[in-house]
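User: quick one
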Amino acid sequence: MTTTTEALTRADFQTDNDVRWCPGCGDYAILAQVQRVFPTLGIPRENFVVISGIGCSGRFPYYMNTYGFHTIHGRAPAFATGLKINRPELSVWMITGDGDSLSIGGNHLIHVLRRNVDLKILMFNNQIYGLTKGQYSPTSEVGKRTKSTPMGSLDHPFKPLSVVLGAEATFVARTIDREPKHMAEMLRRANDHKGTAFIEIYQNCNIFNDGAFGHLTDRKGKKETQLTLQHGEPLLFGKNQEKGIVFRNFAPEVVDVEEVGLDAIHVHDEQAPLAYHQTLAQFTAPELPTPIGVLRAVERPAYDEMLNAQIEAAVDRRGRGDLTKLFNSGDTWVVGER
Amino acid sequence: MTQIVGETLDPPAAQQGAGEERESVVIRFAGDSGDGMQLTGSLFTHTAALVGNDLATLPDFPAEIRAPAGTLAGVSGFQLQFGSTKIFTPGDAPDVLVAMNPAALKRNTDALERGATIVVNVDAFTERALSRVGYDVNPLEDDSLSAFQVLEVKLSSMTIDAVEHVGLGRSDAERCKNFFALGLVYWMYGRPLKHTLDWIAGKFAKTPEYVEANQAALKAGYHYGETAEIFAHTYRVPAAQIEPGLYRKVTGNEATVMGFVTASQLSGLNLFLGSYPITPASDILHGLSNYKEYGVRTFQAEDEIAAVSAAIGAAFGGSLGLTTTRGPGVSLKGEAIGLATMIELPLIIANIQRAGPSTGMPTKTEQADLLQAVYGRHGESPTPVVAPASPTECFHMAIEAARLAITYMTPVMFLSDGYIANGAEPWLVPDPEDLEPIEVEFHTEVEGFHPYMRDPETLARPWVRPGTPGLEHRIGGLEKEALSGDVSYDPHNHEHMIKTRAEKIARMANSIPDAEVFGEEEGELLLIGWGGTFGALRAATMQAQRRGMKVSHMHLRYLNPLPRNVGPTLKRFTHVVVAELNNGQLRRLMRDEFLVDIQGLNKIQGLPFKVSEIMARIDELLA
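Assistant: Done. Structure below.
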């Protein structure tokens, strides 16, 4: 029985259940990082709760030796909200996928973000439906040929970070299954954020959509396609960090750093006005490098904290309620013996 | 709180010795939805309760917030019956109709029986208003109302005169006319003005001119009755023989709110409500939102699905999870209720039914969600169902719903309906000491723990709060292995789990009371009902019994599982009739379970049963 946090290791967060994702799935790498990072967060194991929806990602809680809840398709944000309101001391992590959170669960995702409930949301984006065996997802590119779209898909895809920024999420980040160190850093940042922290994790489905992010993970090419964000640092990329981003009339432009000078390069600011983060969220390689890291991290009171503060305020104002008070409230009258 | 003791409430001097005594009276106030008829009716109700009458009310308002003025669609009504004996229903037909305009008269004339009194606001009977509702001839001027005693009162103009000294504008002054009408009816029935005068003073404390004007209108109406001598009769309704104690007037929804707050206190669990606004359930959301100091957390979710999901999340965390809605909301919640059945956590779904399907008739009552409550989910997912029979009973059945959900670790349906949700009656406030605590045990013992081990008696699995060291485990919608709760696709395990979940609900019959049989335990006719039809069925049964007929009444509060004595009781009567406001849903359930040829008495008009409709059926069967 583990009640302290000191001795926790990765093994403490592993379960006996056989992991049933396909061999080679990007989910394994994510599971490994979460199991490595959780013991380092200073939180007792029993206070972690992992909540998922439906899809390949939905199986995640079964492999984490914490309290876990595999809920229904798309609704995990609502279950997590109900739990967090009632048990604010718990560290609640929500696992979802591009279909679960942006298709069937799109409504709940935007509302949990606007409320800023203190949850950590990891969205595995593989741009395909895996568990139902290969239909296109709301993040699949136009023209994608799948079992349900033999002539190519017609729907314009969501850019997940653009959607969540539209809901004014307070913490928005992106990482990649193949970048374990970066992922661990993002998990820690999410943990430290008070409010809803949303991380999009590019995750390779090697069965139905293999190589969807190959251009971002390929060792040779990735320096040209990834834009690694650091708060207070200029937006640089390229093999030798020789390229930079500037904004002219709000439009981003790739420039040669040597030509314009380092001072001219736009400096990343996690607290900048929303429009800047929205512009970053539109960057897609190869036209503009795909941003990796924390796009936005701002402070706004968390919903669960405010709700519980109202409970305390009501108790302060009217005294704690009990049955005698309850039954004697309102317009009452006494009927005497006749 | 206003503490009022009975003896200070003797009828006013004007009434002493005068007036004909009546056992009970039915009044209906009807006007435009902007005329304040709901308020007028509520205030009359309040005074009737305070002078010691028993009573029942029936608000009847349009779904539109403000339908166009003067139209039939915009007529809002409030009916109440008050009396010196036990009152079971708001009454079949009004003895008095107060009609504020031609639309109100036209909409309600059919409800009246010969001899009824109609008070009309004659000022509103203009040519334009009459033609608007299709009166070619002014009904006050032909003999179409000859069966009734019609009292033409210049309600608008007299109100304007009465409040002239306050200096309000003409239209503001005219809006006080509902108080003039109320004052007049108070005079007819010898009611004191004090409580309404006090209410006005409190309500409009910030605008003294409204206090002055409304009080003046109320008194003017009363004095008009006294001096005009146009009334053939006044009536006296003595106080009822009511059990002594502390009383409070409650609607069904208010009693539901109190019941769930009480269940939270009795169980020591924080109450969490996840809800999405929907008529007629929204008042429970509004009500519970005002009980924050009792630890009640309310969450207005983005939709019905999020509302129930959040309630399940709360239950997972160890709170008392509740969601409130009506039928279509239950449809949306169906998947989540299936999950709650699978993970075996307590959850209460309160369905305040109204006429359906789909949007149906938003403000009209119906009992057509029973089969949905019992069966309306995917897979084998047995769900217990309880149903209060009256506004005040909502309190007790809300506590019962919570007790069953917690004891058996299961979702429970609480089925109320628009009729009892909005109807009001006096409620004998209980003594907290008399209420049984609800036992809750959170499992903390690590040794020998399995998430799906079961209590041998109830078959409930343990409730473990996240945060408990050493008991980390996973739950979810995939089928569970019988003991460990691990995911299992084993065919025999699945069948075992389906049967176990069904057996758990069936065993609930061990901890619910037998159904009360009102009247003899055997006889010619057993009337069975559930929910808000109680009053009409009980009143009809009493009438029949007084006439020497062998009729008994069994009203079911527990619909799944049914109480143990239901089956044997059916077999002791020649005729069994299930009366319900649907096309025969309980009847179907009972025929299925007991193989008895049960007949139906069904009404699907968005309206409650009249006592006379039940009597007609009794006569037909036994005469």
